[in-house]
What we know:
This is Beta-lactamase family protein. With 460 residues, the chain is an alpha+beta fold. Helices cover 25% and strands 22% of the residues.
Amino acid sequence: xxxxxxxxxxxxxxALFQRIARAQSEGRAPSLTAAVARDGEPVWTAVxxxxxxxxxxxxxxxxxxxxxxxxxxxxxxxxxxxxxxDLQDPLDQYLPGTDAGKATIAxxxxxxxxxxxxxxxPWWERSSASLRPTLPDVLGGKPHKHPAGRRFxxxxxxxxxxGALIEAVRDAPxxxxxxxxxxxxxxxTRTSLEPQAPCAEGWAVHPWADVLLPEPVEDLGLMAPAxxxxxxxxxxxxxxxxxxxxxxxxxxxxxxxxxxxxxVPAEAGEWDSTYGLGLQxxxxxxxxxxxxxxxxxxxxxxxxxxxxxxxxxxxxxNATSGPLPSVVATExxxxxxxxxxxxxxxxxxxxxxxxxxxxxxxxxxWGTYAFxxxxxxxxxxxxxxxxxxxxxxxxxxxxxxxWMGENxxxxxxxxxxxxxxxxxxxxxxxxxFVFTREPYEPEAGVPGxxxxxxxxxxxx
Length: 460
């Protein structure tokens, strides 16, 4: 079953459906639903088995587990953007008295605060939230397993603490803030804290026999910001559009890029996977994807976005284990990206010409390394090696006439145009490095000077 909107080619739709059908069959899930969006627009949805066979339809809610964490992280970033907190602030500046108080907000967001992975016993996903009525009950007596800031250590209690932080700063329940600041602006009408019919039933599938066991559904209480939410595949793709270009109603593009930037070192041997601010970041098939996986007893979920391709895919299933939705979702992104590559925007010349900027473009040399400086739309400068790998960055204009590195090696570094007294360009100063029009140009003020005899051959 597919949505009425058929923006993909029939062969692409068949490949997508074949992949989720195989995932449901081989993963032995009672049902599996998926959706794909491109450039923020929903394009394709499907469910296996079909409603005609007794399975749920595409509008049915599933529990999404830890994908909830990304919603919580967006709320924290909104607080930062409003100037109500700084990511480098320690937690106890806003929530005094917790055993996690010395950790910074950024460390909590990227799971580098060193907190324990889970709450004290019993297993919080399958037990009543009444057993953990306060933050000390969630954190336990000794919540730190590692020094803060040293390594990635995934922590469910860490996101409970972030939920409490949001409540303290907003002076409102986390669920109310979540509905008001994310669900309503994005028109996510099928996402909620509690299940809203129609919703799938969660099942455990016996590992050695084709039989089922119903899983309990617990309200997570204080742990809600770490994994409470219910949603549909289509609603999740609507949320995923936020991570392709930002949405001023929820979070601007600059803050979205910050969330999508690696914040912790990858574990040894796992160089293709790391974590940003509330988002997992992986490399698959030569492309970078951001998103999150999720699971709770009876449910598994995956939401992944190929930012460069503008493609988002979500996969949900009502089984405790088996179909690996995160793997399937990344493959759905790949299928679309390879079968129907994005058509580039048409090239158009600039409408206004800044001759001083045009004068800066062309080859520049750092020592003998050749670089090219290009002028991009929006008064953006791009510096990159003319051949091979090397340091490359984009630069945006600052009010004082300098340029600030946006990404790459020179992110946060200042590019200055140094001129002669007559106004002509002498050289570029980039983080103290001198870039000249000719290699080691004598008149450009290269530190250490340039040999007076100039270039020469090697004497025998």
